[in-house]
Automatic annotation (TrEMBL):
It comes from Mycolicibacterium novocastrense (Mycobacterium novocastrense). GO terms for molecular function: RNA binding. It holds the Pfam family ANTAR. InterPro entries: ANTAR, WH-like_DNA-bd_sf. This is ANTAR domain-containing protein. Residues 1-49 form the ANTAR domain. PROSITE patterns: ANTAR.
């Protein structure tokens, strides 16, 4: 399994835990958000996993902004992942 796919699986797990949804629903939500925000899928997945871990070290500003817009209210400490 590639590192990108592993990260995507972890991001799906984050959404399953936050939203209590299925794996398929989580995958579709990540794909939709990546398309809507024009961010590569694996980049967005990495940013979501990073944010869920309470870290602000995602280097891709567009991915950070997308995660905050899509899931900031669901994350325990969205202010730690704020853009700006």
């Amino acid at each position: 399994m590639t590192p990108g796919r592993q990260c995507l699986d972890t991001a799906e797990g984050v959404l399953i835990a936050l939203r209590h949804c299925t794996v398929d629903d989580a995958f579709r939500e990540i794909v939709r958000a990546a398309q809507q925000h024009q961010v590569p899928l694996f980049t967005l997945a990495d940013a979501l996993v990073t944010a869920a871990g309470g870290k602000a070290d995602c280097l891709n500003a567009a991915a950070r902004a997308a995660v905050l817009a899509e899931w900031g209210s669901l994350l325990a400490t969205p202010e730690r992942f704020a853009v700006g």
